[in-house]
Amino acid sequence: MRLIIIFLKNMGFSQEDLKSRLLTLLPFSSEEDWVIQPILGGRNNLAFCVTSREKKYFLKYYNQNHQDGNKKLSAEFYFLTYAALICKSRYVAKPVACDSEHGLAVYEHIEGSRFDSSFKITESEIKHTLQFIEEINRKQFLCEAQNMQLAAEACFTLKDHIRVLDNRMTALKAIEAHNDVEHEAKEIIDRQLIPLWEQEKKKIESSADFSSNFLLREEKIVSPSDFGFHNALYLENGDVKFVDFEYAGLDDPAKLVCDYFNQVEVPVPLKYFDFFSQSIAEMFDVSGNLVLRIKKLFLLYRIKWCCIILNYFASSERRKKEFVGKVTEVNQALQLQKAKKILGSFTEVEFMG
Questions:
Q1: Environment class of residue 97 by beta-carbon count within 10 Å: exposed (0-12), middle (13-18) or buried (19+)?
Q2: Cα(248)–Cα(149) distance, rounded to whole angstroms?
Q3: What are the two backbone dihedrals, phi and then psi, of residue 23, each rounded to the nearest 5 degrees?
Q4: Mean pLDDT of 36-64
Q5: How far apart are the C-alpha atoms of 203 and 345, rounded to whole Å?
Q6: How many CB atoms sit inside 10 A of residue 308's CB?
Q7: What pLDDT was estimated at residue 287?
């Protein structure tokens, strides 16, 4: 009970407010039948499991303290509506209802477990993700796809990829250190991360196709964005379903591949890189340079994921983490160790350059 009160306080809701919103979202249920339980583990938003008789729902509250809250709700709800139209509930949860005014959405509840770093990704999981990407990009649904908004930080030229990283670096440069961990983070950013970025940026900008490398319209894909097994649930029957589509939309397939192999929570072995990249190229490569672009951008995205990990120190992103109670000195220290590990891993992927 105490936890739900904390959640509601962060949302600016009373218990009566929540019940009132649920009656609108689930008009065929009765509040006398509801069992509402907070779900821990959200990165930026708050979530509940709502049981009504024998049916379970996933209720998500999108942080309204930041201007991108409704944008995330819109992106996720539209993407899941689109995905459900194409592949039913094979890969994702079905959307049920949303209340944009109050930042709430209800989805089908998936009974599954989060992947962790100990899970051994096999070719079976790799093929499952490829099937999902292929399904949501079926040509007969092109009209619906074109109505989708751009993915967060969507990139359609090499310059776009550079711009996104420059923006992230600007945020990290502005970090103000107030404890020992923050001082160490700032030193690592200034002495290691930024010089590494400047070096990689210079290499990409000096490439012969830097100014002319842009995506054709037919090369833009429907992307889940922030895609990987860190945003997936493992079901008891061995199936895998994907979750968290707040950043979904039209994007560069090269970005999808680079994010997929560089997200750090559930690493995908690099031995699958060539197979995955070639498979994506077979689906979407119209101009014939997709695999080359993926390799050119790979280290850039390793740097990007180092920036994402260090968001715990950047003021704008820090406020989002504080909303779900994730910013403590202990958590900062853990994130810093992850960043150090990434910075020490660049020799592992030198072949990508």
A1: middle
A2: 8
A3: -65, -35
A4: 88
A5: 19
A6: 21
A7: 85
Q: Is 344 helix (H, G, I), strand (E, B) or coil?
A: coil
Cα angle vertex 68, ends 65, 69, to 5°? 60
CA distance 276 to 293: 14
Do 35 and 168 have their domain in common?
Answer: no
Measured in residues, the chain has a length of 353
In this structure, the answer to whether residues 320 and 213 fall within a common structural domain is yes
Report DSSP letters for 260-311, one per residue: HHH-SSSPPPGGGHHHHHHHHHHHH-SSS-HHHHHHHHHHHHHHHHHHHHGG
End position of a domain, from candidates 64, 86, 110: 110
CATH of the domain at 69: 3.30.200.20
Residue whose pair of structure tokens reads 């039913």 in the numeric block: 88
Condensed to tens digits (0 to 9), the pLDDT of residues 133-181 reads 999 999 878 778 888 999 999 999 999 999 999 999 999 999 988 899 9
pLDDT at 151: 97
pLDDT tops 60 at residue 237: yes
Q: What is the pTM of this model?
A: 0.90
Choice among 56-65, 94-103, 190-199, 290-299 with the minimum mean pLDDT: 56-65
Q: Cα separation of 147 and 158, whole Å? A: 24
Domain identity same for 93 and 159:
no
Mean pLDDT of 252-264: 97
Cβ-contact 14, 8 below 8 angstroms: yes
CA–CA distance, 219 with 176 (Å, rounded to integer): 41
Q: Which of 198, 228, 223, 216 is nearest to 300 (CA)?
A: 198
The whole domain housing 125 covers: 114-352
